[in-house]
From TrEMBL:
Protein name from the UniProt record: Pyridoxamine 5'-phosphate oxidase N-terminal domain-containing protein
InterPro entries linked to this entry: F420-binding_dom_put, F420H2_bilvrd_red/Heme_oxyg, Pyridox_Oxase_N, Split_barrel_FMN-bd
Record-annotated membrane-spanning stretches: none
Gene Ontology cellular-component annotations: cytosol
Pfam family, one: PNPOx_N
Source organism of this protein record: Agromyces aureus
Gene Ontology molecular-function annotations: coenzyme F420 binding; oxidoreductase activity, acting on the CH-CH group of donors
Recorded superkingdom: Bacteria
Keyword DNA-binding carried by entry: no
Positions of the Pyridoxamine 5'-phosphate oxidase N-terminal domain: 8-122
């Protein structure tokens, strides 16, 4: 499996275009929990902003395995690794700024946290991963 460092120029562009993705985590029954998310990739780290206490946050706190997958037409990319929850205000502010650059300024949310995914596996369509 490839690492995040193997993204091609097209792959790096793909993860900055305004596409939604899915986040897959392990649910309480051991099955997959898949939800639509916006995410950013910066300095080799995937960040997803969300509200504290959501099912995806509880899932990550119980089982760190997670994957983000993005599809646009024939192009696709999947980034998997271990996730953690960041509650530090500076980390949250950084993730919000990154999100605003890729998508739009999110609404104010005092319960916001960051799902921080450290990639260890990357798969994608031809031309996105070298």
């Amino acid at each position: 499996m490839a690492s995040i460092d193997t993204l091609t120029d097209d792959g790096r562009r793909f993860v900055t275009d305004s596409h939604l993705a899915t986040l897959s985590t392990i649910g309480p029954d051991g099955g997959l929990h898949v939800v639509a998310v916006g995410y950013t990739l910066d300095d080799g780290i995937v960040r997803i902003i969300t509200s504290d206490g959501t099912q995806k946050v509880r899932n990550v706190e119980r089982d760190a395995r997670a994957s983000v997958a993005q599809v646009s037409g024939p192009q696709w990319l999947s980034i998997a690794g271990e996730a953690t929850i960041e509650r530090d205000p500076d980390a949250v502010a950084h993730a919000v700024a990154l999100y605003a650059q890729r998508y739009r300024q999110p609404r104010v949310n005092p319960r916001r946290v960051v799902i921080r995914l450290a990639p260890d596996r990357v798969m994608g369509s031809a031309g996105l991963v070298g």
